[in-house]
TrEMBL record:
Pfam families: Pribosyltran. The keyword Cytoplasm applies. Belongs to the purine/pyrimidine phosphoribosyltransferase family. The lineage of its organism: Bacteria, Bacillati, Bacillota, Clostridia, Eubacteriales. InterPro entries: Ade_phspho_trans (IPR005764), PRTase-like (IPR029057), PRTase_dom (IPR000836), UPRTase/APRTase (IPR050054). NCBIfam families: apt (TIGR01090), PRK02304.1-2 (NF002633), PRK02304.1-3 (NF002634), PRK02304.1-5 (NF002636). It catalyses: AMP + diphosphate = 5-phospho-alpha-D-ribose 1-diphosphate + adenine. Pathway: Purine metabolism; AMP biosynthesis via salvage pathway; AMP from adenine: step 1/1. Signal peptide: none annotated. This is Adenine phosphoribosyltransferase. GO terms for cellular component: cytoplasm. Keywords: Cytoplasm, Glycosyltransferase, Purine salvage, Transferase. The gene is apt. It is found in: Cytoplasm. It comes from Ruminiclostridium hungatei.
Amino acid sequence: MDLKAKLRHVMDFPKEGIDFIDITTVLQDAEAFKACMDSFKDYAEQLGDFDVIVGSESRGFIFGAPLACQMGKGFVPVRKKGKLPYKTIRVEYDLEYGQDVLEMHEDAVKPGQRVLIVDDLLATGGTTEANIKLVEQLGGEVAGIIYFIELGFLEGRKKLEGYKVNSIVTF
Ligand code: 5GP
């Protein structure tokens, strides 16, 4: 299936000049969503065994949680500041449209666990870098990273050298 053709481009969102890629047109289409999840699973199976999937708020949850459930793995949410109820570790990071803080529960990843990071889109790589820092701070090993969409022209992969990175569609 041509998933690229199913994505909607929204100009000037959330700021003027940004060509925002809207994934909801894929999510609302049962066949397209299934094809997308199947591709995530195919890439995940190529990574060898892993223990847990990490996805960050909020679109990382949409793909990460069902993939974890389907593959018989746990899911760890990474959230914005102050949203997680238990003790957290945190990292400050730069994102495409500003700066923010991401947090993870301090017992969410165990030392030595192999972790798959999942997100909807790779732009500059800042969000993923923050996810990697959280995982590695807890002694986890990043088994791989899978995106639905990669904005190749932003060269986010350069920040992720040394990690196994896959994306389903690239612009
Ligand atoms: P990065 O940290 O790689 O610069 O930005 C990636 C993050 O920003 C992802 O978590 C993603 O959800 C969000 N993002 C940035 N641009 C877009 C876009 O055009 N479409 C979507 N769906 N998400 C975006």
